[in-house]
Design brief:
Elements lengths: L3 E2 L2 H8 L5 E4 L6 H16 L4 E4 L9 H4 L12 E5 L20 E4 L10 E4 L6 H11 L6 H14 L10 H12 L4 H10 L3 H12 L2 E3 L4 E6 L1 H7 L11 H4 L6 E7 L5 E7 L4 H6 L4 E2 L3 E6 L3 H16 L2
Parallel strand pairs: 1-6, 2-3, 2-4, 4-5, 5-6, 8-9
Antiparallel strand pairs: 7-8, 9-10, 10-12, 11-12
Helix pairs in contact: 1-4, 2-4, 2-5, 4-5, 5-6, 5-7
The structure holds manganese (II) ion.
């Protein structure tokens, strides 16, 4: 579809011409999605606009850092629909999927973004949507309160893995410094976001580690998560976020594989690599992704799937 590319300044003046704004995020929303949504809502509210941020599903407990005390306005029928951190309308949760073809503006940072809104503010060099939202809030002339700074920080810190991922820029550190001066308690935020795990998470990790397998002289490490394990530990989606990083974090491991049993009996595969092209390996199994982090979905027994994946990886490792 045709979309008009806009700048943060154009987004700001457009947003200020609207009211009763519905703000959409992707399903299983992460810190960047919720942080971006609430930040822009709080800023628009300073200008007397009514906003509702729509999200669904159970959020990890650290989200209370920004959701506590936040209440949506009663906007009735939305007059304007803004999507944040949303690369594709197919990623909307069921509750808001009906708005997929009615989005007026999208603000996003995914390189894989498809055009679906009337206007698009896309900065694919940005490590998080929240840093683009910060520019829009600045352009709207709003005061960046501690509450807004907290939301921006959650987006920035989660999408950069607490400033550890390769997408982290010097601009990110400069923005973080500004946010600290605006009152963000980074020690508290970092501890709650990155230093704490839910009990359910620890229980699923205990089981996953107990079943951990190594092959290819320790270069491949595999963990398996069954439906049964999820039920036993009462894990919700947010409890298993990032679990695929565990096998790859072990010294000497070139490829970390995580198998997750799906409701339909298939297995979702997450591959993390040190030097190999993960996207290319997963593409051979009908999936795809990034250079060092990719995925695919396979049918068959876990044994058959592991044999096929290990053979494909061994070939590329020259084993
Ligand atoms: Mn994001």
């Amino acid at each position: 579809m045709e979309t008009r590319k806009i700048s943060p300044e154009e987004a700001a003046s457009r947003l200020l011409k609207t009211d009763n704004i519905l703000i959409l995020t992707h399903k299983n929303p992460d810190g960047d999605a919720i942080g971006s949504g609430i930040a822009i809502a709080l800023a628009l509210r300073q200008r007397g606009r009514k906003c509702r941020v729509a999200w669904s599903g159970e959020l990890a407990s650290y989200f209370s850092l920004i959701t506590e005390g936040y209440e949506n306005d009663d906007i009735g029928e939305p007059e304007f629909i803004l999507a944040v951190d949303l690369a594709n309308p197919r990623l909307l949760p069921d509750e808001t999927a009906c708005y997929a073809d009615k989005v007026d503006m999208v603000i996003d940072h995914h390189a894989t973004s498809v055009p679906f809104a009337a206007e698009t503010l896309l900065e694919s060099a940005a490590s998080c949507c929240a840093e683009i939202i910060y520019k829009v809030i600045f352009a709207m002339g709003c005061e960046v309160t501690t509450e807004i700074a907290n939301c921006i920080y959650v987006g920035l810190a989660t999408d950069t893995g607490c400033f550890r991922y390769s997408n982290t820029t010097s601009d990110n550190h400069i923005l973080a410094a500004r946010l600290v001066s605006m009152g963000v308690d980074i020690a508290k935020f970092n501890e709650e976001i990155f230093g704490q795990k839910s009990r359910a998470r620890v229980e699923i990790e205990r089981r996953a580690l107990a079943g951990m397998e190594f092959t290819s002289g320790g270069k491949i490490c595999i963990i398996t998560i069954t439906r049964n394990m999820l039920e036993e530990t009462r894990c919700v989606e947010s409890d298993i976020e990032g679990i695929a990083t565990i096998p790859k974090a072990i010294e000497g491991v070139e490829a970390g594989i995580t198998l997750r049993e799906q409701e339909n009996g298939n297995w979702k595969i997450s591959l993390r690599t040190a030097t190999l092209d993960a996207a290319e390996i997963c593409a051979a199994f009908g999936g795809g992704g990034h250079l060092r982090a990719a995925g695919c979905e396979c049918s068959g027994t876990p044994f058959e799937i592991k044999v096929a994946l290990v053979a494909a990886i061994n070939k590329r490792l020259g084993i």
